[in-house]
């Protein structure tokens, strides 16, 4: 399992390059992160990601008692905050659900670096580009789905400062989120699939033809084809090969 943390001390060139990009874009350091209201739609998959994130925060907080004093947030793959967990909202420096943390809009921050570099990032107070974010230390870790596609980032922030050990906590939280997301997604798909469809899926994986499956489950060939198309739709695939591959990855067969 790869584990690396991008920090100013070890990756100064990345911070310097990002800083120059922000200046070139004309991003004002006195600006504040803004909310993208049009992007607040929460899809079923995003709801699962939020649920997985909250479950991971709960699991980590049982291990690390000090973790409860931190601000924990989840962004989507575009850097938009889609969930936020904190004890004291009044202490939050301009962060809220819907706020955009991508470099183009919020300058240098842990989330922007984690999304750009696909690695964990640790950004201390004065290393942030926007002045309003210089009250907090932040550690962000990218989150991937079971295909290796970027789905977002988790971030731990604290006004009292964070240590290098906190990066391990953030990394574990990201891995918990990925694991819980896969489990929840699998459960959701299983709930959508009828018992007969799970049978058809298993028999298809065994190499049975539609005619053979129809005889084995006492259904018409047209009915088998109907349920197969429904399986394709639920799994979001277009052919048998991809269907079997995805079903196997999700332990459905």
UniProtKB/TrEMBL annotation:
Tree of life domain: Bacteria
UniProt cross-references to InterPro entries, sorted A to Z: GAF-like_dom_sf (IPR029016), Sig_transdc_resp-reg_C-effctor (IPR016032), Tscrpt_reg_LuxR_C (IPR000792), WH-like_DNA-bd_sf (IPR036388)
The answer, when asked if Nucleotidyltransferase is one of the entry's keywords, is no
Question: Which source organism?
Answer: Thermoanaerobacterium aotearoense SCUT27
Q: Do you know which Pfam families this protein is assigned to?
A: GerE
Keyword terms, alphabetized: Transcription, Transcription regulation
Write the protein's name.
Answer: LuxR family transcriptional regulator
Q: Which GO terms describe its biological process?
A: regulation of DNA-templated transcription
> What are the GO MF terms of this UniProt record?
DNA binding
